[in-house]
Amino acid sequence: MKIIIPMAGRGSRLRPHTLSVPKPLISVAGQPIVHQLIYEINKIVKIPITDIGFILGDPVYFGKEIEEDLIRLAKKFNSTPHIFRQKEPLGTGHAIICASEILMGPTIVAYADTLIRAKEDLDLDSDATIWVKKVDNPEAFGVVELNDKRQIINLIEKPKTFVSDLAVTGIYYFKEIQILKESLKKYVNKNLKKGEEYQINQGILEMIKSGIVFETNNVNKWMDCGNPEATVDTNKELLEIKLNEGLNLRDPSSELINSKIISPCFIGKNVVIKNSTIGPGTSIGEGTEVDNCSLKNCLIQNNSYLKDLILNKAMIGNYVHYEGNHKFVSIGDYSKLK
């Protein structure tokens, strides 16, 4: 099994946090988003992941350090890493074509802003599968249309009239992904009109027309990291899930001085917490120091210093120095506020 992860986007809705760190590498509940995505896919497929292809954007933004982090990540799963570049933002279909050299055999395509929990195992004998989640407002999503055999016959983006309430989560399985590659090539070779992009849906619909059967797998949790407030909510939800799974959420090197932790919270390596109340729903990244604070439902990254704060639903980046303000905040890396 291979995994293809298109992650060339700049994550503009999550700014300022994505100005220096690509969105898939932002830590939520103690781990970067893309790390957790691969871990969950590995649980679903039940067979070894032989190759992982990461599709990155401009090297100026996705530099050598990011490549090295992703290579280490693939090797943790005993997988061969592949780094590809999408040099122009020409859409999801174009991104997949950038990985052409490994597009063969059984493959999962997973977009790196998606975090899921799924109980259904993947049927490896199916032609193709799309993971979906039942939603209350299907008009806000791309949805699947099913026939009476529960097979997918169409994909519709933000339908104005009801088609179904099964939203596409951005994770797909192809028993023979080379068929998707050939279907996408028919579109990628065409000239784009202004504002258009090459989308994965074009290839999928071409496959459906040719007789490839697409089935659905349901996810019981689908969590968004699209903007700071949604990411803070996802952090809280993931902490609750990890606590229920019995995972250790506090590094033994962390130091607690005259302070209280209200579970669930993630406390990273070499964190120092003094005279503070932390939680629930709060993650504090490696090397951060917290002094005289109350932090509830907050997501704090690495190597920051926080003092005299009362915060609820705040997202704070790496190397931030922040003292004495009492409101919702979303502060990017290397900021200093007093």
3D architecture notes:
- The termini are far apart.
- A hairpin with a 5-residue loop joins strand 9 and strand 10.
- The protein has 2 domains: 2-226, Spore Coat Polysaccharide Biosynthesis Protein SpsA, Chain A (Alpha-Beta Complex); 229-337, UDP N-Acetylglucosamine Acyltransferase, domain 1 (3 Solenoid), CATH 2.160.10.10.
- The chain is elongated, with a radius of gyration of 21 Å.
- The chain has 338 residues and is α/β, with parallel strands linked by helices.
- Residues 11-19 have low confidence and may be disordered.
- The chain has helices at 33-45, 64-76, 92-97, 177-188, 200-209, 228-244; strands at 2-6, 27-28, 31-32, 51-56, 80-85, 107-110, 114-117, 128-134, 142-146, 152-157, 166-174, 214-218, 221-224, 255-257, 260-261, 265-267, 272-274, 277-278, 282-284, 289-291, 294-296, 299-300, 305-307, 310-312, 315-316, 321-323, 330-331, 336-337.
- A 7-stranded mixed beta sheet has the order 5-4-1-6-11-8-12, with helices on both faces. A 6-stranded parallel beta sheet has the order 14-17-20-23-26-28, with no helix packed on it. The chain has a 5-stranded parallel beta sheet with strand order 16-19-22-25-27.
- The longest helix has 17 residues, at 228-244.
